[in-house]
Amino acid sequence: MILQSMTGFARHAVTYGDDKVSTGGETRIVWEVRSVNGKGLDVRFRLPQGFEGIEPQARVAISRHFARGNFQAALTVEQLDARTDIVLNEAYLAGVMAAGERLRAQYGLAPASVDGILALRGVLVEPQETQDEGTRAGLDAAILSALDGALVALAEARRAEGSSIGAILSGQVDRIAELAQRARNDPARSVEAVRERLAAQVALLLDESNEFDERRLHMEAAFLATKADIQEELDRLDTHVASARLLIGTGGPIGRKLDFLSQEFNREANTLCSKSNAASITAIGLELKAVVDQFREQLQNLE
């Protein structure tokens, strides 16, 4: 499976005529769908008046294509051969005028202007052809079909960005593996280097006071050296690197799993820094933390 970003935009338009989608039809259908990153699947619609009934089916369609993301889907339906005459909602207008007269008489308000009255929602009605159930069902089907076209285009856009993110993530995982190997091969971890540091520390303490038991000091130093060993952290980093590579190679909605791995990477980097008793190992640990932060930032947009 291919990786998908959660960020994308698609616009899909078709022209519907009678019972099919064609270039010479009567109704223009346009879907604009955009998505950004989100913890789950959240969809918000902006639908023209009278088309609210398609929302449940449209929501199901989006859930078939995507697992995560915050979506905004906007529908435009335009009658290409619509009548251009003005239609007044006479009954509604009468009620508005009566209410206006009452308010004017009660509060002494100025009379309403014609343009103000016409601007009220519901006074002017868009002319629509009368549709029977079969015609409306065909239009709804065309709208949902157009949505599928928009979702296919959006998925392609998200896959294209997901591919780019996957390449970046793979490079960062490789860098984490390189840093772990550098720490493993660092001369400061050699037996000779550890022995020299311990000997120098013990000698310094003995020079400061003759009250220390030299044998006991050597035992304590050896114990502290064992606690400071970072082999476990390096082994776990190798395991996490292998898991991350497998997930990226497998693809699909792996964002949450990679986020968990990024936390594990960060934990090992912190422990490596806290255990370090050599400047070179500390420098590697700090660089490792920086790469892990970049890794986690990139995957936030991954489905």
Automatic annotation (TrEMBL):
Cofactor: a divalent metal cation
Keyword Nuclease assigned: yes
Keyword Hydrolase: yes
UniProt xrefs under Pfam families: YicC-like_C, YicC-like_N
Domain (Endoribonuclease YicC-like N-terminal) ranges: 3-165
Annotated ranges, domain Endoribonuclease YicC-like C-terminal: 188-303
Keywords recorded for this protein, A-Z: Endonuclease, Hydrolase, Nuclease
Family, similarity comment: Belongs to the YicC/YloC family.
Name of the protein this chain belongs to: YicC family protein
Phylogenetic classification of the source organism: Bacteria, Pseudomonadati, Pseudomonadota, Alphaproteobacteria, Hyphomicrobiales
